[in-house]
Write a structure and sequence with these properties.
Strand content: under 5%
Helix content: 55-70%
Structural class: mainly alpha
């Protein structure tokens, strides 16, 4: 991780001027008047994939600091820069869980955070929370090996990859952040992106959603595994974790059908078990994404496109439509 991070930092500094050229295309995403955010995101992600060119996470950090009017001298900025450099060290060796995916998740998380604050001017995410969310997005798939949360014999290892990412990143983050609460929050946000189920137990992602649905409805909290317990009593952590979880899934389920097809083909190529077809996409939406977008800001921006993609995947899944690579 250290070797890749240093190489990414060198490359990022060399390409800084080129990276700034991406900023105008990102501007509409952070415009209060812009009403086509899903389409804009889809066009950007498809274009970046086709061209093979995309901004570095370090450049995105500089842009989001400017957009959200966060001073570069704010204490946590160094920590987020480290997280961005670590994320930029993730290569493109894997078809799906690669640097391209991390960039998409970070951009989506920033969009959600910005517009959450726009919709909640009297209860916005604090600067430390925005930067913690950005950091978690940068490191959430660090060191991903494409094998899922299973051992060599096919036994499920809960949150294997998420815990690995946290353990790889934490020593670096602690070099510039002494606040254990922030470090622990980032770690739990990453673990809550785990969509794999243990036998007889919900995935951390589904547990998070049940917690947040109970909080929104004002009903009793569900039973929460001990390692996720903070999600139940720390409302702000739950919100940040939900935004990260949705940012992780949105590029595959809520922007455009063309992008969803592309992401499905990539996921199938990586897994060697899934088939690149509409049934796989529909199953992903219903089982992995629980068939919903839960956060108010996510619903506000992405629900319409999500519903269209969900309906088309269900229809084409029944027709056994396959996706070309």
């Amino acid at each position: 991780a250290k070797r890749r991070a240093l190489a990414a930092m060198k490359t990022g500094l060399e390409n800084w001027q080129d990276d700034q050229a991406f900023w105008p295309s990102l501007a509409p995403l952070f415009d209060d008047r812009h009403t086509h955010i899903p389409e804009t995101l889809s066009d950007l992600f498809l274009d970046w994939n086709e061209s093979g060119k995309r901004p570095s996470l370090l450049s995105l950090l500089a842009h989001i600091l400017d957009v959200m009017e966060i001073e570069e001298t704010y204490p946590l900025v160094d920590m987020v820069a480290i997280a961005a450099i670590l994320g930029d060290g993730q290569g493109d060796d894997l078809p799906f869980h690669n640097h391209e995916h991390i960039v998409q998740v970070v951009v989506s998380a920033c969009v959600l955070a910005f517009h959450h604050n726009r919709l909640n001017p009297y209860d916005p995410l604090e600067i430390s929370e925005v930067l913690s969310l950005f950091s978690a997005a940068c490191i959430h798939d660090l060191g991903h090996d494409g094998k899922g949360n299973f051992d060599a014999d096919g036994r499920h290892l809960p949150s294997r990859l998420e815990i690995q990412a946290v353990e790889m990143a934490e020593p670096f983050l602690r070099q510039v952040c002494e606040d254990e609460r922030i470090i622990n929050r980032i770690g739990l946000m990453v673990v809550a992106t785990d969509v794999s189920e243990s036998e007889g137990n919900d995935s951390p992602s589904s547990t998070l959603k049940r917690v947040m649905m109970s909080r929104i409805a004002g009903t009793a909290m569900p039973v929460i595994p001990m390692h996720l317990h903070a999600l139940g009593h720390d409302a702000r952590l739950g919100l940040m974790a939900l935004l990260l979880e949705e940012a992780d899934l949105i590029p595959s389920m809520a922007l455009s059908y063309d992008l969803s097809k592309q992401r499905t083909v990539m996921a199938a190529s990586e897994s060697q078990k899934l088939t690149p077809d509409a049934a796989t996409l529909s199953g992903f939406i219903e089982k992995i994404c629980d068939g919903l977008i839960l956060s108010p800001v996510g619903k506000e921006i992405f629900a319409e496109n999500f519903d269209l993609i969900r309906a088309r995947a269900l229809k084409e899944g029944a027709q056994e439509v396959t996706f070309a690579a």
